[in-house]
Amino acid sequence: MIVVIQRVSESFVKIDGKVKAQIGVGLMILLGIEEADGQDDIDWLSKKIVNLRIFPDENDVMNRSVLEVGGEILLISQFTLHASTKKGNRPSYIRAAKPDISVPLYEKMITTLEAEIGKPIGTGVFGADMKVSLINDGPVTIVMDSKNRV
């Protein structure tokens, strides 16, 4: 699994012109799933995400997690994170998991993050044409790959 985590002051996702989910201060996360992913990847990433110390403390040092600041999470599935651009100019998405694998893993990631943060999170709709808006606070953007833990 690959995630792109952005610290935001606000973010929302629209589908067909209607707001599906909206958050204030927190994390807007793009999630890419590949066929080799499983519950272990979800468990590792969700713990890392909610405990990632990227929010400022009283000395304006990035030393607090989304849990500590009472922030929110917006999780959006994005298969294009697994794009291969090695050959030609048209990206290949062969590494991205097909829906029969990725949808259940996306849903498990939602429930795991909700359990970790102790409240519901915002989500998009898997496979939908979504318009995501955010105000990146910092800017702070972190990329993590569950296959690259060392």
UniProtKB/TrEMBL annotation:
The keyword Oxidoreductase does not apply. A motif (Gly-cisPro motif, important for rejection of L-amino acids) lies at residues 138-139. Its EC number is 3.1.1.96, 3.1.1.-. Coiled coil: none annotated. Keywords: Cytoplasm, Hydrolase, RNA-binding, tRNA-binding. The keyword RNA-binding applies. It is found in: Cytoplasm. It catalyses: glycyl-tRNA(Ala) + H2O = tRNA(Ala) + glycine + H(+); a D-aminoacyl-tRNA + H2O = a tRNA + a D-alpha-amino acid + H(+). An aminoacyl-tRNA editing enzyme that deacylates mischarged D-aminoacyl-tRNAs. Also deacylates mischarged glycyl-tRNA(Ala), protecting cells against glycine mischarging by AlaRS. Acts via tRNA-based rather than protein-based catalysis; rejects L-amino acids rather than detecting D-amino acids in the active site. By recycling D-aminoacyl-tRNA to D-amino acids and free tRNA molecules, this enzyme counteracts the toxicity associated with the formation of D-aminoacyl-tRNA entities in vivo and helps enforce protein L-homochirality. Belongs to the DTD family. Homodimer. A Gly-cisPro motif from one monomer fits into the active site of the other monomer to allow specific chiral rejection of L-amino acids. This is D-aminoacyl-tRNA deacylase. It comes from Algoriphagus jejuensis. The gene is dtd.
